[in-house]
Amino acid sequence: MEKVLITGGAGYLGSILTEVLLSKGYAVTVLDNLCYKQLSLTSFCHNKNFELVVGDVRDTKLLTSLVETHDIIIPLAAIVGMPACKKDPDLTVAVNYQQIKNIVEIIQPSQKLLVPNTNSQYGSSETIITEESPFNPLSLYAQTKCDAEKRVLEWGNGISLRLATVFGVSYRQRMDLLVNDFVYRAFTDEFLVLFESHFLRNYVHVRDVAKAFVHLIENYETCNNNAFNVGLTSANMSKLQLAQKVKEYLPNLVIIEEQFKEDFDKRNYVVSNEKLEKTGWSCDFSLDAGIQELIKAYKMIQNFKNKWICWKSFNWLFSRTLPRLRRSHNRFQISQLKFRRVLHSHLNQTSLDVYKQVVFGRNAPLLTILPHLQQKRTLLK
Questions:
Q1: Which of 117, 130, 311, 335 is most buried, by the most CB atoms less than 10 A from its CB?
Q2: Which residues, at least 6 apart from 12, have a Cβ–Cβ distance to it below 8 Å?
Q3: CATH of 3-171+202-232+271-285, one of 3.40.50.720, 2.60.15.10, 3.40.50.10170, 3.90.226.10
């Protein structure tokens, strides 16, 4: 059984890839700092072939120990997107580039290395993009990805996957990706404002990306030391065409094209995925299927969001009330943990009524819970 190490494996792509690899019989170790407090890997904890290491890819000693004991290395950990990279350039370089450089210096020729990269490396082009097209990075994110890929291919024993804009539902959902964002805005706001709507982009479903990784692992010997564009060929389209496609499934959507303002994101390209397709890989998910999948998910997320507001309100109330109770700690021997248990027990008895009867909103749960909490406080005085 081959052992796979995935850095950043609790993220949007990593959680899906972990599921797919485990289903294929691989042993998977995920290295992730869980910076988003996500629970995206909990459904795999029963699997004896799954292991989670909570740590940071900048910890060279930890990274070395893990790389040396695995057959396949997939470094997904990254600072993604222009805003996040701009906010902390040093962290971006450390995670996006230095991590890859360190792995290349550690890894042995007998091991397999598959590195995710991005169509963003191409920047903007008026011709159809292939793997031989020159890079034109327009952001720090794209530049770090260019540098990382160059380091891998110079080493001569690795594969780079230049991913199109990914879409679809994941265990750690991302709402900032263009298709996901458009569908969410169409579903919740029923309108979209497009800047430079003629800009073209390629798209691919997150599960098709995971499929591409598995395909290249299984065909590593013939595909080694190469870069591949990974995208849905039929989904090379402009932002306006994408919005119109979303409108087919959410007909109340109003599309507004802004004529006088520019988009800060200048990426604009049509990408050929023929090189990877010739190796036997193909997409299973169409753009239409992805949009319908997202709509189903957002129906559930919207319902959960209302309940989340309720719990956020409760937590706020708890944080305001607890200090007063703590001042009486010595007198009544009530610890924070015990108080939580008492309050949670009480909520468990009333939560069904609260959720069934309350029209969820920022204030409604407070008004419902407050009398019960006041009663608890009276008993504790």
A1: 117
A2: 166, 170, 172, 173, 174, 177, 206
A3: 3.40.50.720
Burial 94-105 (b: 16+ CB within 10 A, else e): bbbbbbbebbbe
How far lies 35's CA from each of 94, 95, 340, 378, in Å?
A: 16, 14, 25, 39
Residue range 115-133, pLDDT digits in tens = 999 999 999 998 999 999 9
For the whole model, what pTM was predicted?
0.80
295 alpha carbon, distance to own chain's centre: 17
**C-alpha–C-alpha distance, residues 288 and 307, integer Å:** 30
pLDDT tens track for 183-242: 999 999 999 999 999 999 999 999 999 999 999 999 999 999 999 999 999 999 999 999
Cα-Cα-Cα-Cα torsion 64, 206, 144, 240, nearest 10 degrees, comes to -170
Which of 105, 106, 131 minimizes the C-alpha distance to 119? 131
CA angle 37, 149, 110 (to 5 degrees): 90
Cα 76 to Cα 58: distance, rounded to the nearest angstrom: 13
Distance, in Å, from the CA atom of 332 to the CA atom of 86, rounded to the nearest integer, reads 51
Question: What residues have CB less than 8 Å from 226, skipping those under 6 apart?
Answer: 131, 159, 160, 275
